[in-house]
Amino acid sequence: MKAISELIFNENAWSMIQDWIRNSQTHVHVLQNTRIDGEGVLYNLQISNKSTMGAIALECGGLVVDHGWLYILGSGHSEIYGSLIDNNHGSLFEEGFVVAYDKVGGIFAMNSGQFDRDSRNVYYFAPDTLVWEDTGKGYTDFLYWVMYGDLNQYYESFRWREWLEDVKKLTSDQGISIYPYLWTKQGRDIENTSKAAIPLKEIWEIQSDFRRTMIE
């Protein structure tokens, strides 16, 4: 394994990411970390800070995007659920390397061969289909899209009128449980579903159970 000194460079991707954050079309909050935590995650990942993922791991605990709807994992923080090396996302999400999640149960994960042998794209576990969907983007393009893409359009069928107020009330380990479930016909009428704050882990476990049933 490479020593931490071999993974940290003065010329790195963090300055570019900071520029993206400053000019982002959506609200992005950087969660501060300690240097020890950042270096620890970078060392475990064995990537350098020349890469965008390495820069995120080293320089921040994570990113809170769109007022808390979407979270980009870094080295960990009390305001985010997990880190790039400890994501706590349950057995369902061992299928890929988790890099981000949203508050309605969606997960973004890097393909490490499970989805497609030839792809290194980020895949999205969609709560309305319980299927891993190829975003068509590598990690860097995914990060750029998070800051400059149209999240309202992407999440149009998942968002209700009061979503912003509801998300702001959540603790770091909570998400919004929607019932009838998003993957059912009744769940498509998002305004007429019931919403409740429950642990994210519980949301993922429910999704995992139903997905397993669908596959079997």
Describe this structure in words.
The chain has 216 residues and is of the alpha+beta class. It is 30% helix and 21% strand. It has 7 helices and 9 strands, in the order H-E-H-H-E-E-E-E-E-E-H-H-H-E-E-H. The protein has helices at residues 14-22, 35-45, 52-59, 139-148, 151-154, 163-168, 200-215, and strands at residues 28-31, 62-65, 70-73, 97-102, 107-110, 122-126, 131-137, 174-179, 194-199. Strands 1-2-3-4-5-6-7 form a 7-stranded antiparallel sheet. A two-stranded antiparallel sheet has the order 8-9. Strand 4 and strand 5 (107-110) form a beta hairpin. Helix 2 (35-45) packs antiparallel against helix 3 (52-59). The longest helix has 16 residues, at 200-215. It starts with 13 loop residues before the first helix and ends with a helix. The mean pLDDT is 93.
Topology (elements, then pairings):
Elements: H1 14-22, E1 28-31, H2 35-45, H3 52-59, E2 62-65, E3 70-73, E4 97-102, E5 107-110, E6 122-126, E7 131-137, H4 139-148, H5 151-154, H6 163-168, E8 174-179, E9 194-199, H7 200-215
Antiparallel strand pairs: 1-2, 2-3, 3-4, 4-5, 5-6, 6-7, 8-9
Helix pairs in contact: 2-3
How are strands sequenced across the largest beta sheet? 1-2-3-4-5-6-7
What gap, in angstroms, lies between the N and C termini?
A: 40 Å
Given helix and strand content, the structural type is alpha+beta
Note poorly predicted spans: none
Note the beta-strand portion. 15-25%
Shape: globular
Summarize model confidence as the mean pLDDT.
93
Please work out how many helical segments DSSP would assign: 7
Q: Based on DSSP secondary structure assignment, what is the total number of beta strands?
A: 9
Largest sheet properties = 7 strands, antiparallel
Amount of helix: 25-40%
Q: What value does the Rg take, in angstroms? A: 17 Å
Written as H for each helix and E for each strand, in order along the chain, the element string is HEHHEEEEEEHHHEEH
